[in-house]
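Two records follow; treat each independently.
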Amino acid sequence: MKIALVAPPLLPVPPLRYGGVERVVGVLADGLHARGHDVTLFAPGDSRVACRLVPTVPSGLWNEGFHPDPAPHFARTTAMVLDAAADFELIHSHLDQYGFDLAESSPTPVVSTIHGRTDIDPIAGAIASHADIRLVAISDSQRILAPQGNWIATVHHGLDFSGVAAGSGRGGYLLFVGRLSHDKGIEEAVELARGSGHRLLIAAKALDPREREIYENVIAPAVDEGVVDFLGEVDEAERDRLLGAAMATVMLSRWPEPFGLVAIESLATGTPLIATRVGALPDIVIDGRDGYIVDDVAAGVAAVTLIGGLDRARIRARALERFSAARMVDDYVAVYERLLAGRVHSDP
């Protein structure tokens, strides 16, 4: 198949550090290319992929400290793709609502994977007003929050775990990896550490003003108490090492996570999750087998006492099967084949 993949202009594919969408697009691009498909990626010029690259901006905008409205750069991206649309059999957009006009205007079939929240605007409103666009969800919970969308499939993310080793879980600590954000439940994670009597290691950046505020008000006092060790942002190898040695990874999100790459990265090392019953986390974590789904901090504290009874080898084996790069590529190829055969319909 001749396939165009379209990534946001914000970060290179794959990203140097943070950037979930770009990591997934990179895995998909390389996986499709390895299977012999003719793949062209529209993405920032500093992207590093095996397939053909068409630069939409010289380098990822966020890498250059860009903060203004990125909408004009998304519009330029979609215009470039539209100009070349006839060269492809299929276009796969990862632009969320920014790609909807492309989907409606393109003479070539377009499928759009939605990576963001579907319960609030701008994505919720855009889905409601573009009811015919073919959408792929990354979790069932994402679809439930926008039932008016033309969802043709759910494809869970997959990553290349070939270099990820099984972890021992003997570090004696709990781990938080992600953004310093109230939505991510950072205050609850600290309270869980206090209540359980186990240290919480936090691997996250604290650079912008909102992150610095959370660091000063929540993290720094807990560091002074000896409850928290703050590590800052870490690279991929260090992240995997930290995940593998943790007793459990803590994801007490307050918001409906569309997916949660940290969750599958943790499970791939064999480290269980203590996660809230929101968004995609219950889709990823099999309660009582991959960790525990909890409703509050008190339940999380109780879950810590049970973590040692879980089988880490089985957790890892399930994750490597359910969330592999190969499985994700298989699922997307199946979507593409259905679309090109004219057999795509709304998937209830």
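The next record belongs to a different protein.
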Amino acid sequence: MSFASVVPVQTPPEDFPTVLVPAALREMWGLNAVEIDYAPVGFGSHHWTVTDDRGDRWFATLDDYAADPGAVGRGAELGSAFRAARALADAGLDFVVAPEAARDGSVPVEVARHRWVSVTRWLDAERLAPPETQTPGDRRAVVEVLARLHAATGQVPGIAVTDDLALPQRTALDRALEGGIRWGAGPYGDRGRDALAGGAEAVRSALALWDEASEALLAGRESWVITHGEPHWRNVLTNEDGLHLVDWDTARLAPAARDLWHVPGEDDAAVDAVLADYADLTGRVVTPQDLHVQTLRWDLTEVALYVAWFSRPHADDADSQTAWGGFTESLSSLAAREAAA
């Protein structure tokens, strides 16, 4: 998971004029946009829906790492992830909704320093039902797609990066737990400090568990597979052709559980069925503890990234409000695990 993968973006970028998007589409993909609308969806990236002069529809994305101190690495990871998705789609995996290659073969295209644009053909489909209303058949269908994906690892040698299992902004989180950061100006600075202090014991315990687990996982890298990274219901679309996976910016080689933990959601009763289906389809054994480790990683990542968010100046806007919700939800999740241990 990258920093961008959890940063909410409900508003258009202030310092990237929308006119630059159709200019990039025309120059790099030969697409003449006649209609373009900002789409306040998802996390980490800015999106626009586009209609070209032939009536075809597209989904354009801006991944903006200009303010990220690790921008060079982030850009390399993004390029590897999108090229891996493109390779999987070109190999015949029909559920992979991959970005289109530009006329020079680039995927994605850097249109300004540390700013990348990608474009995906529009797909007429609906999101999968949210976890609380999914049926066993819905979950089985997702597992089938993930089994096909993991079996295609041989299609991405030398393209996909290998997950290093590092928690982004770990240093900031460690410093915050020690009282060594100054919380940023804005409505959630002091509140963030107090919330972290209240959940500090659970966070420290979770970090210790993750450090131990990640060391063991790294020792078993030879069994890792190509993973989507975030195949939750918001990234799974469905139509008459079946299921489709979108949003491939975090694709990389990693443990299979990195994908599988998203499938049962919070339905503990569904875990055994999901893992049994996966074993039946792949012959691979993934345990409930493997899923637990990945949920732990997710919550720790969100806590760390939002600590970094609230330690900087921030506004009282839709993005900060969404960030606060994610921060407190993950703190609550870690506290619940600590209490149940």
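Discussion point: The first strand starts at residue 33 and ends at 39. How would you locate this feature using only the token line?
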